[in-house]
Amino acid sequence: MPTPRIAIIGAGPGGLTCARILQQHGITAAVHDLDASRTVRSQGGTLDMHPDSGQHALREAGLWEAFLTQARPEGKQMRLVGRDGRILFDAIPPEADTTEGNPEIDRGQLRDLLLDSLKPDTVRWGHKLIRAEALGNGTHRLHFTDGTSTDADLVVGADGAWSKVRRLLSDATPRYTGVTFVETGLNDADTRHLRLAELTGNGTMMALDNNLGFVAQRNSGGHIRVYVGMRTEEDWHQRTGLDLTDTAAVREALLKKFTGWSPDLLDFITRTDTGYTNRPLFALPVPHTWAHTPGVTLLGDAAHLMSPFSGMGANLAMLDGADLAHALVKSPTIDDAIHAYEVLLQPRSVAAAEGAAEGINSAFAHDSATQTLAHMTQHH
After folding, report:
1. 48 has binding-site annotation
2. What EC number is given for this enzyme (predicted)?
3. What's the pLDDT tens digit per position in 198-247?
4. Which one of 49, 74, 164, 360 is CB 3.0 to 4.6 Å from 307, fit for a cystine?
């Protein structure tokens, strides 16, 4: 294949994995990201890397050993707590090295690992895509908000939930799942939080019941990230005139929703160190497929946005990136590469999205405590 001009839109795990593997094979890809720099915003919580997807992609990218230096095998602990604060289920992994199971890593650490593996200037920061103009024969001209443009023989939409590249292939838009997370967090080294740190354990703690719940994740650096979840209207705060910037008012509104829950669990609301961020959860329709279009494809959330209850989002994105890169290396033309890649991508993403939809619906149901306990008991 002649040296193609490849533009990857979005510097998330999937796009960066693709760029890294292409570079290992001598193929240059430019990554365009809307953020002004790599440090402009938090990258979110912790991720567990699965052997047949995220771990596989890291090995293909030559980053497995570097990953092991930052991964946390103890992060595999899973705990279910009742609304009364009693521990109902606790899966504590045996002492083992990080090559077993699904070791955890903070999303920001993973992104830094990938970014540091790329050649300088691979990522073009501050390049927010406005539109892609088809020039014929699969070539597109990309226009960015800074006034620049570039032509590409292949545009890879790795630009997440609200992908602009997806518009070239599909009319699908993400739909609200019916569940909103309000994110907060605390420092487990603070003596005021000893009970909450103990309740969280070394991995993930969930307390789910009657369309409400808490998810607490231990991150690196002594931070516990907390998601206060509820099945509610997307505009739940507007309906009650709640100002999301008013910390005290948000706290009181959440406490009211969780009336009757254990004081220990309610402390995840009242003892926050970080304020509150409203995060309604969206997903693409299932199945999300598209007709082959020369010069364009998707990966990660742009292709298969799903609820976090799949546990597969970043893993699938990285596997997508690895598979697309290998298809480009092995195929005689870009068009052949897209065909080969999408044959792998679409069936597995549909299966994962179906599982994610089932997961969030069971986690936020009237009998979610019973369903979750049965699921954990069966799978551990």
Report:
1. yes
2. 1.14.13.-
3. 899 888 899 999 999 999 998 877 789 999 999 999 999 999 999 999 99
4. 360
Q: In the numeric block, which tokens belong to residue 179?
A: 């569940």
| Class for the domain spanning 175-283 | alpha beta
Query: Is 107 known as a binding-site position?
Result: yes
153 a known binding residue?
no
CA distance 132 to 164: 8
> Within the chain, what is the greatest distance between any pair of CA atoms?
66
pLDDT in tens, 260-290: 999 999 999 998 878 899 999 999 999 999 9
Q: Is the dihedral of CA 112, 204, 322, 67 positive or negative?
A: positive
Give one DSSP letter per residue of 247-272, joined into a string. Answer: HHHHHHHHHHHTTTS-HHHHHHHHT-
The answer to whether 301 is a known ligand-binding residue is yes
Question: CA-CA distances (angstroms) from residue 313 to 21, 23, 146, 304, 316?
Answer: 20, 24, 30, 8, 5
